[in-house]
Amino acid sequence: MEVAAQPTTAVDICAETAKAMRDHTFVFSHFKYTDKTGEDGDLAGKIARIEEMDAALPALLAADPDVLLITGDHSTPPSLKAHSWHPVPVLMKAPHLRGGDGGRFDEVTCRAGQIGTIFAKQLIPLAMAHAEKLEKFGA
Question: What average pLDDT does this structure show over 34-51?
């Protein structure tokens, strides 16, 4: 994959992601700092970084991605100061989703949502299906 930029703030990540979407059909963006604050055992810092990204997301949504996935690569609870086995919430914005808005983005609400609990390896094919990039789903 081409590395377009390595911004460090949520605002810059959302802006660079929106910019990269103009020339690419798939863009992966990584906000490292929620993981880092978890590894540091810094609960207040982790909450602040999540809130920072929440505040920056409207700029990315304004770029109108076909499909937007928001998730983590693993849980990093500050109480453990390490990666853990806990579930990772997944939020998807896509044109063909059915069902309502859960109103929250946390493990419990996501598990009860349309996607439910899935293996990570199922996430990209699901996103590609919603973006209508597959000839036939499951084939």
Answer: 93
pLDDT in tens, 44-62: 999 999 899 989 999 999 9
pTM of the model: 0.80
**Which domains occur in the chain, in start order?**
10-130 (3.40.720.10)
What size, in residues, is the chain?
Answer: 139
CA separation, residue 129 to residues 31, 57, 98 (Å) = 25, 23, 14
Selection from 69, 62, 72, 60 nearest residue 127 by Cα: 69
CA distances from 117 to 17, 66, 84, 95, 120 (A): 27, 23, 17, 20, 9
SS3 per-residue string spanning the chain: CCCCCCCCCHHHHHHHHHHHCCCCCCCCCCCCHHHHHHHCCCHHHHHHHHHHHHHHHHHHHHCCCCCEEEECCCECCCCCCCCECCCCCEEEECCCCCCCCCCCCCHHHHHHCCCCCCCHHHHHHHHHHHCCCCCCCCC
Q: How far is CA 100 from the centre of its chain?
A: 18
